[in-house]
Known about the structure:
The complex is a heterodimer. Chain A is globular, with a radius of gyration of 27 Å. Chain A is an all-alpha fold. Chain A has helices at 2-8, 14-26, 32-62, 82-85, 91-124, 130-142, 145-158, 165-188, 194-201, 206-235, 238-243, 250-260, 265-294. Chain B is mainly alpha-helical. Chain B has one domain: MetI-like (MetI-like fold), CATH 1.10.3720. Helix content of chain B is 74%, strand content 3%. Chain B has twelve helices and two strands; from the N terminus they run H-H-E-E-H-H-H-H-H-H-H-H-H-H. Chain B has a two-stranded antiparallel ribbon. In chain B, helix 3 (62-103) packs across helix 7 (160-184) and helix 3 (62-103) packs across helix 12. The radius of gyration of chain B is 23 Å and the shape is globular. At the A-B interface, helix 1, helix 3, helix 5, helix 6 and helix 7 of A face helix 1, helix 2, helix 3, helix 4 and helix 5 of B.
Amino acid sequence: MTAAxxxxxxxxxxxxxxTRVAVIEKRFVPPRWLRRTGSVLLRMWAYFAxxxxxxxxxxxxxFSFNDPVGKFNLVWKGFSLEAWQNAFAIPGLTSAFFxxxxxxxxxxxxxxxxxxxxxxxxxxxxxxxxxxxNLFLVLPLTAPEVVLGSSLLVxxxxxxxxxxxxxxxxxxxxxxxxFVAVTVKARLRGFDWTLEDAAMDLGSPPLRTFLRVTxxxxxxxxxxxxxxxxxxxxxxxxxxxxxxGSEVTxxxxxxxxxxxxxxxxxxxxxxxxxxxxxxxxxxNELVRHWRTRGLPVG
Amino acid sequence: xxxxxxxxxxxxxxxxxxxxxxALAWLAVFFVVxxxxxxxxxxxxxxxxxYLPEQTFSWEWSNYATAFSxxxxxxxxxxxxAGLATLAALLLGYPLAYVIAFKAxxxxxxxxGLVILPFFVTFxxxxxxxxxxxxxxxxxxxxxxxxxxxxxxxxILSTAFAVVLGLTYNFLPFMLLPIYVxxxxxxxxxxxxxxxxxxxxxxxxxxxxxxxSLPGVFAGTLLTFIPAxxxxxxxxxxxxxxxxxxxxxxxxxxxxxxxYPVAAALSFVLMAIILIGVLVYxxxxxxxxxx
Lengths: 298, 291
């Protein structure tokens, strides 16, 4: 203990070091039982935070099985499978849900392509303006959604671009790009670029190297980014609210329904989204697991 | 990190620019230009009829004066609520991130999964769930009434407390994840050395773990505070007319009242305040940590 302490302060005058050690040894050391209690309290507080995070989700899933009296599914009345059996029985809700899926699919494809390309540029090359580009990419993440939505609305009004499906897609791509770039960048950082050199040394042309070596290896990162982008699109309310015109997405439908009626089908669809995303994440992790185990070097 | 990057760094004059062009062009057109339009609109005057208003750019600074004098309360309220929610998210998020990073053992991934679970339930539906939980017929209110913390006629819904709680809940993962990432990066040998050097427990944490996790705390603070300050859903669903936030005002000015210049001024001030904070942050800590 003393040796280790002294090694950590080598430049110090011996006398000073001695007094220091003395001070450290005199300092109050909490007894074991007190540290135990502290650690138990810390754990309990952490579990409380977990319950706080988990509670509303449990309520959402539980209330998809509710048999509400009246129009609002806000108070528990009794168990029923009716909403699940008639999940798509509310025409406005169903069409809004499918609009959301379409918006998500189209915007995700564009955002993933554009965002992955710039991530590749930033991780793989060192170039003038790279640092500035990094900062610029983060800026949209720091703009509040009301600002993004309202500024896009002003732009669309200026351009006399009628708001609707296309403006929703454009707005979603605009906030997805940064998230995609950041996610792909994080996944690319650990990538061993010498694998590319190896392939090219063996005579593989650049394009083939990219398609056969680079792309398969960065694909899990791109898939993760795509799932995030899709989830963000599906979930977005604030930006969409500004630029939607008369188009209705799933969150917009929920928002307008709040005033008139809240059918349990809203919860059924939310639960379906939750289950499908969990299944997809599980699948992606599983594939990643198999692939890393399958690689001979690694 | 620098070593790894240098190893794979390619030298090419054109390729990185070609790869960057689509994203940069998109963000120029749909992020920078809109902000510019917003700025111009915020300095314009409205003429013409109510149904076909026309904006003319005229350095109309009075829009900003109007925005501040009329909606100063909502501005202050937004920053206070967002500040409280950020603090609450830090108090809940840091210990949980700490336990997941250092004490969870083989349950680490399961716990992390639980933390991001809220992302997969639509924001609005999550917030409506809080309406159920905190409702006057709910078990939370009746429990607190039985214990005597709440009077028989007291509510939780439609109060500032409910709004701050909603904000805390909705943005907690944004606080927790960056903190977790920065804790995860800490070399355990440093922590061991610290507990040898200082007494175990508190001081090792204060001298080593806390300073090393500060970048995560800063990133989490920004990622929580920014969306919370601009949010209007929690205030609308869980609050009342007395808890209106600046987001509600901006949204109403744009979509219902259609007073674009004042609305743009409000929006721009919110953006400017936050942007200044972010730039100061980026200068002090670098941009890598936000990601």
